[in-house]
Write a sequence for this structure.
């Protein structure tokens, strides 16, 4: 005969085993490129995927990114995040992506006009439809699906071999705003960081 213990304090004091699920591997650059190549030039899903791969931006932040945060002329992305952490985000896009994004912005304007809408967002579309199109392209080209947030992981892993820790923190949006203001708002330092990043 067994006895049932009803002591809650005792029950909560016993440590529970925690299962650590393995982190999924980030997709390779070749797989990301194959998916992008399967999508129409300057289409929203393709531009979003390439933009995430080149800038290292978080997916949620990309969805909410304003047009004013991106300068195609000098190929810079600059974003102040107005939260308790007071983070700043700075990254760069490649010349080829800048050219494609110009064509995308023309399509974006035509699309919004046809709907009779206006928006100040860079990607003013529903995330679910975007993801579905990307997943279909993944199924056809590489035979498996990866989450868009894993593109950021690939970006970080790649640049960690080529940039300093502080440079990577600036590009990932982890650097404190005061550090960015003091060290990375100077034109020559930003240009050096852009050259270091885009030559890889």
């Amino acid at each position: 005969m067994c006895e049932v213990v009803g002591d809650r304090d005792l029950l909560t004091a016993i440590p529970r085993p925690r299962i650590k699920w393995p982190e999924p591997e980030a997709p390779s650059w070749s797989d990301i490129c194959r998916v992008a190549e399967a999508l129409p030039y300057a289409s929203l899903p393709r531009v979003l995927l390439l933009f995430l791969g080149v800038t290292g931006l978080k997916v949620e932040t990309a969805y909410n990114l304003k047009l004013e945060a991106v300068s195609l002329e000098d190929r810079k992305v600059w974003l102040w995040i107005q939260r308790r952490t007071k983070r700043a985000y700075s990254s760069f896009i490649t010349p080829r992506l800048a050219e494609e994004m110009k064509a995308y912005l023309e399509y974006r304007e035509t699309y919004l006009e046809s709907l009779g809408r206006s928006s100040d967002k860079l990607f003013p579309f529903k995330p679910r439809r975007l993801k579905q199109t990307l997943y279909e392209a993944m199924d056809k080209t590489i035979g498996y699906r990866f989450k868009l947030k894993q593109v950021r992981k690939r970006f970080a892993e790649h640049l960690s071999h080529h940039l300093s820790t502080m440079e990577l923190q600036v590009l990932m949006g982890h650097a404190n705003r005061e550090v960015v203001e003091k060290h990375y708002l100077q034109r020559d330092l930003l240009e050096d960081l852009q050259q270091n990043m885009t030559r890889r």
Remarks:
- The longest helix spans residues 95-115.
- The chain has a mean pLDDT of 79.
- The first strand starts at residue 70 and ends at 71.
- Strands lie at 70-71, 76-81, 87-92.
